[in-house]
Every structure is written in structure tokens, then in C-alpha cells.
Amino acid sequence: MKKYEKEIFRLAKRYANKKRSYLLVNPWQAKHMPVSPTDALLMMNDLGCLTAQKYPSARLVIGFAETATAVGAIVAANLADDCFYVHTTRESLAGEYIEFSEEHSHAVEQKLPSATLSHITGTPVVLVDDEISTGKTMRNMVSVMRQDVAGLSRQDFAAVSLINRLDSDDEIRMEEAHIAHCELCRLENIDYESRVRGIPIEAAQTATGNFEQRSYRRYRAATRVSDVRKGEWAGLYYKQCRALAAEVLSYLSKQLAGLDSALIIGTEEFMYPALICGKLLEAREQFELVRCQATTRSPIGVCIDGDYPIYEGHSLHSFYENERQTYIYDLANYDAVIVVTDADGDKDLAMHDIMAAFGQRCDRFCLVEVAH
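That's the Protein of uncharacterized function (DUF3706) sequence above. Prediction below.
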């Protein structure tokens, strides 16, 4: 298995966050920075293989929104086709759900539908996040589930992550909560607050420009994918995403003819289908460059000095709510930009912001709308 210590860790500074001033940015995660979708999926698959080796009987995987939704899907797929996958959400959720806090985050409250927890048939329950720093969020969630969900009071849990920074005291707290863990990369839990204190950051720019008259192609996919905010069997979800990607690429084949580069953008929690679309596009080898990333709710400071990871940022209207502010970072020149989203309603403001953020660096845009 590949060693990732020097490759999946970049230190950035959060913008206007008094709870935690730093952020560990993973260049391979296809979230804040553009990356080859094939490389991103290979890294996530390595974590999936590690999880399957350590916890082969697990049959319920819970991914954490918004950065670990794709990671969780791949971990579940590595366990078994009949492993049930669901991820937490900050979106509105119908029916009964449990709620817990991610206290250091820009968006604190997370929700998980209670009905999905009835699918537990194996042990442990696997919780997937991109990073575990103190384990407090995991312990908060497990405490709520053990208290509020019948049958979970004595259930074993395992925290699986790309990066683990638990110190010795945190390890003891996790053991006392009966939460095991495994990870791709173990980092020392040093004082990152002091390391980012002197970094001169700026806020992401508001996307501006007279792009209302520019057009973008809109494609409503016939293939539906399950809403894994409510949960789905891992094998079926993967097949749905593959079928969606094949349909989208069939449509785009004419639109992208003769082009050399393309960027696939997922939206907030909706990352995995965009990555699968990107991987299939990259496998065709008709492009010199295919990259994938996603919009995010996370406000990160921008700095052009040295090797700081976030050198450009733009604030956008969310694809899900016009009143919500989201962001996209580290843009580059592409021949085509394809946004893949499961958002309902009007998405014109968000698409116009995307086009404004790219300015003259791209003149061909497509919105792929996916239904559940």
C-alpha cells in the first residue's frame, strides 16, 4: 500500500473561524484542490482495502459530510455489496433523525436518519471521516446513537480516516468509548494554531462579471442514483454511479470532441458520482488533462505566498439554497467545466457564479442534473 504521509497533508488557515484557525487540506481528496479523479479514488480505495482487512464483518458504514461522503462510499464498497452506506448531512432531512455536533466546524449541526441504523447486521459500525484530530465529533455521535437508538447501547464502533492525529489522551478517551480506529496516515498532533497564526490570508473573492448572458448546457440525466443521505446498499450505489457516468459521457462525447482538458465539479456533499464521471472520462485518454473537485461550505483563507495550498478562492451561491454561501478554490484553465449535482430547484445563480469565477479561462460549461 502506498505511503501517503507527505502527499495528503497541506496546512491552511480557516477564514474567520474562532473555534479552530487551521485546516488540513488533502490535495488528493477532490474537494478543495483539483486532482486526477483516478488518483483520488485510488487513495480512497487504499483506505477501503485497509478497512476490509481490519473489520471484514462490518456491514454498516457512516460517512461524515461534507468532505468524507465519497471516501465513505468507497470504504463501504470494499467491505461488501450488501454493506449499507449512509452519510451524515447538513441538508434538510425528512422523518426521524439523530443530531450531533461537529463543534469546530463552520456548520456545526449534523444529522443522520434513524431508520438507517436498523440495517446493522455486522460489527463494528464503521464511521468514516477524512481526518480525526481529537475524536470528539466521533464520540459525540456514538454517544447519541447509543443513547437514542435501540440495540446500539453495546455496539462496537470503528473510526476510519485518511489522517489520524489522536494524542495519547485522545486514544484513552476513544478506548473508553469503545471506538477502535484505523487510518492511512498518522500525524503527530502538534500546535497547528501557532503555525498558521502569522499567515497573511485574504477572504475568497465574490464571483463577479457580466456573465448573465453567457449560456451553459443543461443535461437532465435519465439514470437515477439513490440519495445516500438516506442510505443505500454499497454495491447498488456503485452500479448506479457507473451507469450515470456512462450516460453522462455518452452525452458529452459530442460536446467535448476536440478538447484537451476538462474539470468535473461535484457540489458540497454530492462528490462520489462526480468522481466516477471523472474517472471514466480520464480512462478514455482523449484528454491531456482531467481534474475533479467540489464546491464547499468551508471558508478558507487565500494566500499566494510560498507553498500555501489555497492560492485562489471564490464565493458562490449554493446550488442547493441561493441564500447559502459556498466556495470553490484553486481554479485553472480548462476547455470545459462540467458540474454534476443532485440539487433541486433553480441553479442559475450558482452556474453564473461558476462562470464568473472562471472568467475567460473557460468558455464551455455544462450542468448535469441528477435525480434520486
